[in-house]
Here is the input.
Amino acid sequence: MRLKYCLLLALLVTSTIAQDNTTDTSQGQDTDTETEPSVIENISKETNTTSQVTHGQDKNYSEEEDEGEEEEEEGDEEYEEDEGHIPLDLSHIPPPAPGQPHCIMYDKCGSPPGKTYPVLPCSVHIPPQDVAQVDLDTLEEVCPELVKKYGTKLCCSQSQILDLVENLGIPKSMISRCPSCYYNFRQIFCELTCSPIQSTWVNVSKTVIEEKSKRPLVTELQAWVTESYVSSTYNSCSNVIMSSTNGPVMDFMCGPWGSYRCTPHRWFDYMGSTDNSFSPFDILYQYVTNDSVVPPTIIPFDHPTLKCNEALNSSTPACSCVDCMDACPAPPPPKPVPEPFELFGYDGYAVIFTGMFIIGSLLIISSTLAQDEKKRKDVDSATEYQQQSGDRLLRDEEDSSPLPRRDEGRIEIRGEGLLTSLGHSFETSIQNLFTAHGEFCARRPLLVLVPCILFTLLLSSGIYWLKITTNPVELWASPNSRSRIEKEYYDSHFQPFYRTEQVIVTAVNLDKVYHNTTDGLEEFGPVWNMEFLEELLSLRKEIVENIVGRKYNTTLSDICYKPLSPTNNNCTVFSPLGWFQNSLDNLHLQTDDLNYLDHFLFCSRNPGAPKDLLGLGCLGEYGGTIDPSVVLGGYLPDPRNPPVPVPYKDANTAIITVIVNNRYNATENALAEDWEASFIEFMQDYIEHRKPKFFTIAFNSERSIEDELSRESYGEIPTVVVSYAIMFLYIAVALGEVNSIRRLAIDSKITLGLSGVTIVLLSVSSAIGVFGYLGIPATLIVIEVIPFLVLAVGVDNIFILVQTFQRTPKLSKETHSEHVGRVVGLVAPSMLLSSISESTCFFLGGLSDMPAVRAFAFYAGMALLIDFLLQITCFVSLMSLDFKRQEKSRVDILCCIQGAKKEKKDRSPGILYRGFKEIYAPFLFKFPVRVAVLVAFFGWLCISLSVVPHISVGLEQELSMPEDSYVLQYFRSLFNYLSIGPPVYFVVKSNGLDYSDPKVQNLIRGGSDPSSLVSQIFAASKSNSSYIAKPASSWIDDYEDWIHNVHCCKSNKSTHEFCPNQASLTYCDQCEFHYNDGEVLPADFKQYLPWFLMDNPSQECPKGGHAAYGGGVNIKNGSVGANYFLTYHSILKNSQDYTFAVREARLIADNITNTLQKELNTTATVFPYSIFYVYYEQYLTMWKDTIKSLLISIIAIFVVTVLLTGFQFQAAAIVILTILMILTNIGGLMYWWSISLNAISLVNLVMAVGISVEFCSHIVHSYLNSKQQSRYAKAYDSLVTMGSSVLSGITLTKFGGIVVLGFAKSSIFRVFYFRMYLGIVVFGALHGLVFLPVLLSFLGPVNRRK
Here is the structure.
């Protein structure tokens, strides 16, 4: 939060010539200490009438301030008496010798007629006067060059010297950080006040007669100065930074022009004008060049100046790089913009993979031709197989079954190796085990079903204790990630970043406004229509005053941020109306030449100015500045390259931002959330019923995103339900084997299909319940994705079990339970292979650091494991019961009803099975087709590989919101009108760092060391590639300035405790600091630092640190602990910008850390923190995390496949190759279909690995168990046997449900679920049913069965 508290500080110096807020010490110190505060309070009171900061802080001083006010009321009539200064009698002084330089003004004579302020100097014509040594010593403190040059005869009295010393203290606190600038700056004021040769370059051009003494008072001067002095002085000061605002001092010293439009003439003219409310008389500077004509007696002022990079003397360094660009070392060459990888003028990846495709295709064609020539016998074997099998399945079920009979005896194994032998023994044991298990489940179904149902219900009851994580921070950032650790450190040592409520109002159908300003006729954007501003003011008033929380009756005042509390209890609310103190009267205030547009221009150039020519200040009611880039938008045609000066007047958008306190303990934010809920309701009602026709409104609350994400998930429930309903309906219908209308109700499998789906859902609920018991929170991704995944795997297994049973005839003398057991023994190993591979894959995926991915992996792994267990127990028993029902011709669902008897005729294996056997497989296994398939899939792989490196990383905020969400409109408005980047804090973990040590201070503050923390951040702000927009605010620099300003540090006379800088000197003393070689002693540094952090800024002491640094510096046991330095990122538009900003800020912080540790031998560290880091840090390592997660999953699948296939490494390698191709081609789909890589797509990719196993493992397992001998025949057999089950079990089941997701209202559903799910299923089916059988026909293992 930027809080700028300042004024036109240098302007007070002008009044040192004759100002009435100090006394002539010759009249006594006692009078001075009692009367001085009343004048200061007078100035403060005048400022406060324009709704400026209420000065004072400590309640102990309320009575003192009341007394001061009473003293003021005693009358302006006694002003001179209260002032304590009696004008000197100058009548006895003889005039100067003719032609000799002389004084043209001297001492303080009184105020203009009818006024008590300002007190003006006398217009005189006298020679220079002797100055007492004590006064000369005082003058030498601020003007040593003048004393050395002229000696003791000067044109200033004691009171003027005291005024000069006091008032130079204010600009000194602002610009003395650049000694050369301060040196040049003070010369003209020292000479103007005390020079014995005033008459040679200054002339009194206007006077008035003082009523009592009848003496002439100076009201206007002419001062001749050389162009070279003015320009050199300006150039030495133009880049000096005011650290508390991160901006140039010229923003405050150059009045309405600000730093961007300031020039040497404008600066001096403004400082010399009474329009600034500080100069007691006008100074008309006459700028003299070599060609100028000046009066013959005039010798223009032309004091030697120093460049900002020149040292004043050996003990005073030159300005630092922060304040002087010429003092900066040569910057390193800018980082080269990464050139796209190109070869021969084309995309390098495309060239490489095109070449790879050409070479690979030639190798594929040549090698397959060679293999075909050498192994034609494989084709003959397949032909013999087709001739032998033919229609035998229909003619002789018992002999033609592709499954081995129970009495076939031992399988003969070719090849001799220990691993092969062990592998086959292992697989045979598994098959026998599942056969026995299947028989038991079929024989004792109730004994299996009842315990399983009770067990799943027990597990599912854990859902009661389930916690669902919706907090985006906990969802996407690991608790052990750097961003989470740093966020926790920041939140615990300072406070969580403020909650913000924001309204963006764009003007539509309004004309632009034209107004004559000092620059001529200017055009203003539509937001400056008075009608627009009045409505905006009304809206702001309702938000601040009328919204009340429904639950706790919370008002904004209860929860808002009040930086100057308790002296100023107004809420921090930013809007353009803040420049008018949210007053309709101030908005309408005008003179003949000036109106609200002039005031806006004044404040936009100088946000901290206390008053303009209309008498209005610029500070908001809350006591701080209103940054135009925060409250205005739509004025930058290209936000990445803003023009100079920034055309704020062209704005078409106004922004209202309410800052609300955020608590470290989230449960303490209930009041804020209560008010925010009412705020959202109010804004929705306002937009719908009360919005003016020339308003377009977007708004957001701190709770909005989380609310909308929750609403989005619940809002898509109908879509998801319809999707699953379509899949359930298909399953129920497709499982049946209907051969006639008469037996439709008997041969259908609706009950069995729904039972299978119920088992899938029970497995999901059981998995969720398990983790509910364990206290591991779920995420919305778990709820949305895992049912899809488990349904894909579970339904596939259901189809394989049922269809294998349907196609496997019962053997002679084989009981029903033995028939079921034999089928289970043959199918279950394949189910075990896929399920264990997938579960292991997901459980190991839980090693991911990303909470969302980890939760998904754990829940998915458990759900798949439970699903497998339920399928080989419950579903086998249910399947056995259902086929018994069918054999007895009982009606499906209504099993008590007897249906038509089964007719004696040949069994039909199903349309899909026959399609695969009679049409698809013969076509696919033609040699030219197989070769074409390999070439085509290899080409597809190469295309995908060429574009995968170009996949964008990140998640744009708009995608996460429903299309009808008000937050979506807010995001779009931010993108279109955003004019400032997020704040970034460079946090110092001090670890014992002693800030009172000058060596430590030099490595932190903006001094002569270019490697200091502040200097490095400043250097980064000058680089376009750093994403740092401004120099950092520095508490240590401002503390040093606060120390040097005599108006700031005060202590109570009786208690010696802290006094606010506005406290009366009647009750408080100025602090006494002790120095060693120009540095404050460590004891004083530590003693007064807490006072600096308690002191509110004021006109006399703008560097009070309470508002800007009160919450940013931790002090423990008198020493500085954690502290931060605030700056801002440049404008960030998309995920890439945010990610790069995190990266660059960390590079800067790491470099600062290295410097501190190297130079100070300390363990102190520096890290950057911004509110968005915790969300975008993941994208810094997204590719690494993706590769890691997928690699772990693939290795797990390879190991499990090797073990469960009897150590078939070749088969496992083929499975892995196919899965990798599926993933790569999904990556290509992500590129072509604009799906970015982020945590959601990473979850989907991990899921794709699991589903890909389903497409591959059953085909490969069938290949390995085929009775055929050649690769060609085994591959052909496996495709015919398993292809239709895989197609119907996964592809067709999912396709209908996925298509429904394409109609979801949420972009995130359509992009990351519809598009990716569709790609996973379609690509998986193409690879599993087209590429994999062809690859097996060429490269599959052959040493399997005889």
Remarks:
- The first strand starts at residue 103 and ends at 110.
- The chain has 48 helices and 29 strands.
- Confidence is low (pLDDT under 50) at residues 1-83, 389-416.
